[in-house]
Amino acid sequence: MSNLEPKEVFAIFEQIARVPRPSKHEEKISAWLADFAKQHNIDYMVDEAMNVIMRVPATASYEDKPCIILQAHMDMVCEKNSDVNHDFMQDPIQTYVDGDWLKARGTTLGGDDGIGVAMALAAITSPTLKHPAMECLFTVDEETGLTGANKLKDGCLTGKQLINLDSEDDGQIFIGCAGGIDTLAKMHYTAVKAERKDLFPLRISDKGLMGGHSGDDINKGRGNANQIIVRFLFEAMHTDGFMLAAINGGNLRNAIAREAEAVFTVAEKEKENLRVRFNEYVATIESELGDIEKDIQLNMESTDMPQSFIPTDKATRLIQALYACPHGVVAMSKDMPGLVETSTNLASVKMKDGYVEINTSQRSSVESKKHDIKNKVECALALACDEVTHGDGYPGWKPNIHSPLMEVTKKAYQDLFNEEPKILAIHAGLECGLFLEKYPYLDMVSIGPQMIGVHSPQERLSISSTGRCWQWLCKTIESL
Q: What is the pLDDT of residues 427-464, one digit of tens each?
């Protein structure tokens, strides 16, 4: 990235990309941030959660201006294509440039939110930027639990204005976000063996889907690999000799499932007929998804005979529960046209030792609707699962259309680019709602450069947009 502009930002992002930083495993990146502060003689602290807070004094003539907080999260979503050999706990991200895009080879890039961290660090170490006193807050585990924001102690921050650097849309200011809650379901079973000798084993799989962020991309009509597999299993389970041996799909609760597979049997005499039905199903899916999922690959092939199976009654209920479980947009906002109000994501289905584990995530900008969709998901999964639990969830961030910081940020963009930025709320979750619980006086905005395909190996970061966002951030800070 040495030739990319702005060099001060991409030089730092290149270093960040070398540091392993999966969610819930931020030891190395937290330590790297502490070392960065030491190397640059920046006052810092690391709290019990491994959040890192840095502080720098105001530059000349800005001493009487209010302190500004820059905030980003240090963890990244770790997704890779199944044919890629990459250990997120050890290996650096392999980046490359493709035109205006910075990409990674077969994995997530970590632009979400490594580029936000890089811009904040570039700001507090800039020798030319004029600014009031600044605090930088780098949080852990934003992607899988908002743990860092949850565990942030009162009194750690002194600023009253906060710029969150975790958005992914060029020229847009976000002033609100959805709240969310996760659901975990388990179906325990005692494995059985096949009693019939005339069974033929098959493996069905789908891959090549776009996937993406379960908030930002949920309304884009993309396929969910779990749904696609389960929909055919529902048809196949009415076939003579059907027994389900395995089902696995998806990975992270905040990513739309891109790949899934299942292993099952049918009677030998039924395999040709099922093949015809499968070919018809493939044509149906391709017709329904149209031009959205151009690279989808649906396959059914013979496989080795499994050693054990899920009991038929439980397998039937599991397929029914997964088929009934909602996924996608539930309602659109009545207040902000084009904004998703409520959604749910059938994120992952995993075979464990003696049970099947199902993860879903629900989002809504209306607190009561968040719990309503959570309850509907519970009702569907309870058809098969003996254990359904919900996480603590996190609050939404109610838009403040009279925000002074929003006005400064808006004017800075207008002055730079001679056009108005869009003022929006986002369906994805941001940590701002939790900050507001602890610091109710905070005035906040969220901005960021253009990224596409986050939470998937298709993640890419616009280089030119990063340059514009860096100019915008600097102009906003200087304008305070």
A: 988 899 999 989 999 999 999 999 999 988 999 999 99
Phi and psi (nearest 5°) for 64? -95, 5
Q: What is the pLDDT of residue 415?
A: 98
Task: Compute the residue count for the chain.
Answer: 480
- Strands laid side by side in the 101-104 sheet: 95-98, 101-104, 460-462, 451-452
If you classify domain 7-178+396-479 with CATH, what class do you get? alpha beta
- Output the pLDDT for position 79: 92
Give the chain's radius of gyration (CA, Å): 24
Distance CA 193, CA 379 (A): 30
Q: Which CATH number fits domain 181-390: 3.30.70.360, 3.30.70.580, 3.30.2420.10, 3.40.50.300?
A: 3.30.70.360
| pTM score of the predicted model | 0.78
Look up residue 284 and give its two tokens: 């149906």
Confirm if 447 and 71 have CB atoms less than 8 A apart: no
Active site residues: 75, 142
If DSSP states are collapsed to H, E and C, what string results for 254-312?
A: CECCCCEEEEEEEEHHHHHHHHHHHHHHHHHHHHHHCCCCCCCEEEEEECCCCCCECCH
In this model, does residue 229 exceed pLDDT 80? yes
